[in-house]
Amino acid sequence: MPVCCSTACLPATCSCGRIIIDPEYEDEAMSIFSKYQSNHARRLKKAEAINMLMTEFNLTEIDAQIIFQAFDKDNNDVMSLWEFRQFYQTVGFNAHNVIDLFRKLEEDATGTVNIEKTFDALRNIETGKGKLTDDEIEMLLKATAGESKTIDLHKFLNLMCRLKVYKGSQ
């Protein structure tokens, strides 16, 4: 764990921007990950990682690929144990719930959410600080949508991960 990280405020983000891994989840995550790793490499190639996500979390291949892309932070087509632990702590066995919420908010099978529906849904979501204000929701949606002004499943996963550790605007 980086020196700047404190276990007193888990789950949270470190001042360096990384999500701090909660020690409570380490053993569970390692247990799942180790079933698929070879030679104690603590890295899974893309095909192995997608297989793990499909098998352990009962995801479709397409959803597993999207989750893989969202958590392959260095875009090297390998899922490290650290990247898997981020997935496990922030989404993990709730992956279906997050994907189901995305599908409910999706705009006519376009692959993007309806921003107004998403705004309303975020009013009911608990974050690291509790309920969000309308201003916070607007800020988070704008930051997530970016210039394209759309939120696909990959961006939605990132938004939901940020919400889990969100402590309010500084």
Automatic annotation (TrEMBL):
Recorded name of the encoding gene: ORF95654
- Where's the EF-hand domain? 59-94
MF GO annotations: calcium ion binding
Q: Which UniProt keywords apply?
A: Calcium
Q: PROSITE patterns, from UniProt?
A: EF_HAND_1 (PS00018), EF_HAND_2 (PS50222)
In Swiss-Prot or TrEMBL terms, this protein is called EF-hand domain-containing protein
